[in-house]
Amino acid sequence: MRSHRWIILVLLISLLVSWFTLTGYGEGWDELLLHRYADRSLNAYKTWMQEGAVSITLDDLGSYGPAFLMLDELIYHSISPILPLHPTDIYHLLNFITFLAGVWALYDVSIRWLPSLSAMGAVLLLVTQPVFWGHAFMNSKDIPFFAFFLLSLAFGFRMMDSYRPIRISAPSAQIRRMLVLLSAAGLVSVLGLFAFTGVIHSAIDNLVGSAAAGNENIVSLVASHIRDAPPEDYIQKFFILFLRVRLAYVLFATALLTFLYYRYSRSTLAMIVPILIPGVLLGFTTSVRILGPFAGLIVAVYGFRNRGRETLPLVFLYAMVGIISMYLTWPYLWENPIGHFIESLRVMSSYPWNGLVLFDGQRYISTKLPYSYLPVLLGIQLTEPVWLLFLIGFLLAIVQITKKQDDQTSAKAGLLELTLIWFVLPILGFIIFRPSLYDNFRQVFFLLPSVFLMAGLAFSRIKAPQWQLALIALAILPGIVDGIRIHPYEYIYYNRFVGGIAGAQNRFELDYWGTSYRAAAEYVNSVAPANAPVWVEGPAHLFDSFARKDLKVLDAFNPALLGKSYYAVALARYDLEKVISAHTKTIYTVTCNGIPLTVIKQSEGTVSNDSN
Fold this sequence. Notes:
The protein is α/β, with parallel strands linked by helices. Among the domains are: 3-162 and 331-492, no CATH class; 517-604. Helix content is 61%, strand content 7%. The chain has 24 helices and 7 strands. The protein has helices at residues 3-21, 31-51, 67-79, 87-110, 116-127, 130-138, 142-161, 173-195, 197-212, 218-222, 231-264, 266-286, 293-307, 312-328, 337-349, 373-381, 385-401, 407-433, 449-460, 465-486, 500-504, 517-527, 540-544, 576-579, and strands spanning 356-359, 362-365, 533-536, 552-554, 565-571, 585-592, 595-604. Strands 4-3-5-7-6 form a 5-stranded mixed sheet. Strands 1-2 form a two-stranded antiparallel sheet. Helix 1 packs antiparallel against helix 4, helix 4 runs antiparallel to helix 5 and helix 18 packs antiparallel against helix 19 (449-460). The longest helix has 34 residues, at 231-264. The radius of gyration is 28 Å and the shape is flat.
């Protein structure tokens, strides 16, 4: 069947649509901060072996894995000279392409349990969700994690499907024992040198301090003039020496083992090679967001279910490659891998976000949300057919596995188990333990693909292809129609259960990332005289990115503006549009379906000081 051609067609059409609509999307609130973090992380690769330090802290977003951000930055600098686009639009295009890679991975995962047409239906239902489509452009945190989580599953499942038991073959038992011992010694020593980097740095610190105080030790023997320079200089020199020796040892050990396996056990080397891509992807995914190992857990469960305990060596090697990949792509971990990883896990499990979350007309602290937060938002921000199809598919799977066992039943049981592990149990965990959540449910995007797989199972219940196609078309229609209606603000979509965006106004978050500041800047560009001052409340950089170069963009009220003409721009959030320059005339409002997102005011020089 031509199923693979259809997924390629869907991806190409999506990419084409994104190209022609790209310039409508404003910059997201955090994008500039994330780009700066990417630059600092990339710079660490230049300075680490020279200075022995990484100038990244938790305040610099160190707890966020920078892998995708660095890749995004490298590609951006490579292609920006040849693309006639605004820098923000280039970043958005790269983000959307990443989203499409995740969409392909979802299809690759789904055909293990679903007929190709039903799998396409599941993919189309997800792609046409306005919330996903909108976030796919400017959300460079959750969408890349969503995509690489799916890619990790797709390639991890492929690894398990093609798995052959790893047994070290060699001409003799003696050579086999030698290979095993050298492999174990190499792995333990290398992991130890990296895992205990922080401990080694502390040991160097103590030794240098002791030698500087006049005590004899190995440092005083090799550095006779240690009292003539600050101890910090010697600490840095010895630590850099350690880094270089460690690198040389790793390269030597890797080359030696590769040569020995190539010489005595090429078949073993050939069995290990297929682990590399899935393992690297798993580590990369973890270096995008610290919940990445959950993808590895799902892959391991899949392997154990299908192949049993014989997959244990594979899972071990898979995890080792993942750990190495994570370490190499996350500079914040370099100085103290174990300590910083645990610290990042603690921070990200209860992220210290200081804002208030608007939910059902009330404002909450992000760690004190009601238990209904996720269920309600999931119910009103996905299109109306999604949960009905999910429920049908879920019940079909349960009913089917109670009947006689066959291949079809086994597939449904596998999909049901996957859904329980991937979606049901984690969502229950989020609801019960209530970790910090804000900006609606974007942090749990990576859990939702299994919902669409269950919807695909509902599609498969209809055997006649023409009627299944009709049902798929009917299911995706609300997302397409509503997405067009609210473009380019698809990410603030609310369905008809709550009355759309109009029903969500003042009850739920709307333009919480300030993307409407692009339209506001474009309007001010068209009406403001040269060098006009523009007071932008909130994320002024979102406006400044698209403002004319001559405009004087201010991020706070300046008393020098009193009695003068100026423009004031404010989000229709937290009632900012009402209190900012309250006695000044509103000249333009950026709206979505008639609902205000950003308000632009103009003072003619008669305002009082109402900046509070």
